[in-house]
Amino acid sequence: MIPSSNILSVLLFFPLLGAIAVLFLRDDDDYWIRRLSLTVGVIEFLLSFLPVWAVPPGANGFRLEVFIPWITSPRINYHLGVDGISIFLIHLITLLTPIGILASWNDIQHRLKEFHIMLLLLEMGVIGIFLSLDLFLFFLFWEFGLIPLAFLIGIWGHGRRVYAAMKFLIYTMAGSIFMLVGIIWLYNHTGTFDLIAIQQMLQSGQLILGRKTEMLLFLAFFIAFAIKVPIFPFHTWLPDAHTEAPTAGSVDLAGVLLKTGAYAIMRICLPLFPDASHRASHYIAVLAMISIIYGALVAMVQPNLKRLVAYSSVSHMGFVTLGIFAFNQVALQGAVYVMLAHGISTGALFLLVGMLYERRHTFEISEFGGLATRMPRYAAFFLFTVLASLGLPLLNGFVGEFLVLLGTYQVHWRWAAWGALGVILSACYLLWAYQRVFFGEITHEKNREIPDLNNREKWVMVGMCFMMLWLGVHTRFFLRRFEAPCQTILQQASPNFMREASTSPLLRHDLAPNSQERAAR
Amino acid sequence: MIPIPGIADINRVLPELVWCCFGVILMLLQPFVKLRQALTFIAMIGAALGTLATFFGTYGSGFVGLIQFDTFSIFLHWLVGLVAFLVILASDSYLERENLDAAEFYALILFATAGMGVLASAQELLTAFIGLEMSSISSYVLAGYRRDSIKANESAVKYFLLGSFATAFFLYGIALVYGATGSTNLSKLAESETTNNLLRLGLTLILVGLGFKVAAAPFQIWTPDVYEGAPTPVTALFSAGPKAATFALLLRIFSTVHAATQFWFWAFWILATLTMFVGNLGAMVQSNVKRMLAYSSIAHAGYTLVAFAAVTSVRSDADAVSGAYAAVLFYLVSYALVSVGSFTVVSELGGRGERYLTFDDYAGLGTRQPFAAATLTLFLLSLLGLPITAGFLGKLYIFSAAVKSKLLWLAVWMAVNSIIGAYYYLRLIVMMYMREYKGALPAEASRGLSPTSAMVITVTAIITLYLGLAPNHVLGIVLSQNLILSSR
């Protein structure tokens, strides 16, 4: 048995070991490359359940911490930890990686070895982001994940893949370089990269940031994360990257990579710069609402099925941003829930779109129509996923969005109203797209011969649909586990000028009017 | 009366003596030894022995204050010695392919290395001048070593003419400094209270001369042409050795001569900004990989100058100053090794007569030559400053020095430049992995790497990763107390 202090390190580096093992296989040994990487992915998925025992429902703070000094100057520590939020996001990536490998079983035929190595390295980078408790380590994994994903898009993608890969890289790097300046600034004023230590310094008043400094630092971090999420004006890389990426790449990108941005906002921006977060919250909420509605409207007019799903991600991630910046327990939990739900349902949508592409080599909606009679199984899975994605009660999409709207309503009812509009729009574009693809007459001769799902594809989809149902029904199982961490984040994020007030439970409800007044002034 | 140099003095210049002796031996052997591998082996032994000879020296100044033997100079001796060793090893297959004489080539490399050694330990401006000339004159010859190539000739003549100008500036600067203070010894200058305009003018001219050698804008015009025309292993040497040694001299001058520092802050600020932008914007539009790396070397000189600006702005804070010194030295090491590695790959892929140097020739390299492509990608990512490579930590330390000195604008310029840099480095990576080769593949292009060059590439790649993952040892050296001894 692995000693408890090493669980996280094993979890983090197992994909790397797997990638090295794959590296030693022969280039043309397709059979074993696929099977070995799938095995590594599945074992990693099972490994990710080990830390679950350390994070029981209601647990607060970081568990299974690993702390090893690494570089002496500047003092950088290998500091990992897991809590109720990050554990689920890690499950998400460890689940989606083997699924992605399965989905590319026939899809990817050339340079198979590199493909699987890149997938495994990407998995490691993402897990690293969720585990790091040291800003430097966090930055390291943040950058580390970019390269494999860019290769996935650039080598195995479709159409304008090189353009999409370059755009993705330059966008994210441009954001992160300013984050690096911010991280260094913090180090110079605190002497540490340790996230928890810096938080404690801020809470105890050892480190006091000026109004302007705090805002600048907040922006340096926030823009890097906003590009990843993506929030409205920073989203333009996403449709290209999603559309051109191979199926496995899109699944990982939509499923988990976008969540790293939102996770980082919750983990770093809110606790470290509470005042600035509150001051900026109104502007960001407006951007989030624009993301929700604009993403949905643009998705509606897309002639390309994959692009449609990509824009729907912009819309759904808007809910996450809205939920975070509502500064409300319910909304924040809802935001985390949307992250998980969106990871599953959008991942599944990309899988389905990828399966269609394998058969017809096109994403154009106009190329399809009447598929329901030809591929009934496929149509059923697609409908299930669409309903989950548009937020049908009892499926995963509903819970998170409902909680976000509920929480936001308590704070600013107008925000909730605009957000609700997004829910309606998502039903429009998804059902309309479904109608055009599956119903009506078969207009293209090629569609008459189109085969239905094979067993491999069927079982992948059964797994995904099970997850959607589970997330939709057994809500408490998930909510209980990230309730306390969300509470902690909100406590840390309460701005200094309200901290005294908020300790008294009676005054807590005054939070909302207060902030509205401030905005009015 | 000048005292007779003792054995301790000799020991302090032992590395230079060894390098020069081996250079002479190689030239003497040329008529007798026809086997190129033997000459390569002897030259490598020479480079290694010279480096190891630093163990014999004792700390302190030698030859009545002409040279200073301290951690700083040992560190740089190791760096230039290692670079010479790797470049000699990498030249072996190049010389065979281009059918060039080996002995003279190696001798010149060793002489140039000795010059760099002198530069690194010079405590007196005239000693520095001698070191500069030793390394420069060898470099002029090396630049034009491919006699039958027009580009190489252009490279050598350009380098020689402009280099001579720069040396003249440097010498004139020394004269003016002597006129102002009555001494050219750095320790004496450190004690001198003089801060008149004559001294400032003298130091300006010194800065111009050295700025030329490190290819700082606006003195960088020669760099792309010279780097492109010179044999590629020599380009590797140029971008690593002389640059590191000249930066070392600059650091020593501006760390000891206090009169220079406050006054020079803006000079370094402007030089750094200009150099970064010129280098990166120039590199962006190149279609020749060697030229792109030449411009990128200008850009990296700019990053190093940011740390100089940081040194000059925070004289009073000892911690910040030593942090900035460490940043410079770490950056020099990381850049030198990455540069040797990447130019070696370029040299191997160039083919006979260095014909395959454009971006298009690199298309599809990822499938044709996985090892070369993978290592070149690593070097490019290090130049770009991505984590777990040496280049990332180097950049981090410079960023850190700039932020600590409250030079936020300079840090922002550096950040902007890093993004510009990302574009052209990634373009090459994209070329190697995501594009197919157009047209018929020449037979030469799919030939594997020679074992010697593969060795150099492996060593530099390992060091690049090692410095990025476990930098503690090197940091221990560059952050040591009394890195630079200024007392006599």
* Number of individual domains of chain B: 1
The N- and C-terminal alpha carbons of chain B lie at a distance of: 18 Å
Q: Which oligomerization state do the chains in this entry correspond to?
A: heterodimer
Shape of chain A: globular
Helical fraction of chain B:
over 70%
Q: What's the shape of chain B? A: globular
Taken in chain order, the helices and strands of chain A follow as: HHEEHHHHHHHHHHHHHHHHHHHH
Poorly predicted residue ranges of chain B: none
Structural class of chain A: mainly alpha
Account of the protein in words:
The complex is a heterodimer of chains A (521) and B (488). In chain A, helix 2 (30-47) packs antiparallel against helix 3. Chain A is globular. Chain A has a domain at 282-491. By secondary structure, chain A is mostly helical. In chain A, strands 1-2 form a two-stranded antiparallel sheet. Helices cover 74% and strands 3% of the residues of chain A. Residues 500-521 of chain A have low confidence and may be disordered. Chain B is mainly α and 488 residues long. Chain B has one domain (8-478). Helix content of chain B is 75%, strand content 1%. In chain B, strands 1-2 form a two-stranded antiparallel ribbon. In chain B, strand 1 (60-62) and strand 2 (67-69) form a beta hairpin. In chain B, helix 10 (222-229) crosses helix 13 (289-313). The radius of gyration of chain B is 21 Å and the shape is globular. The two termini of chain B are 18 Å apart.
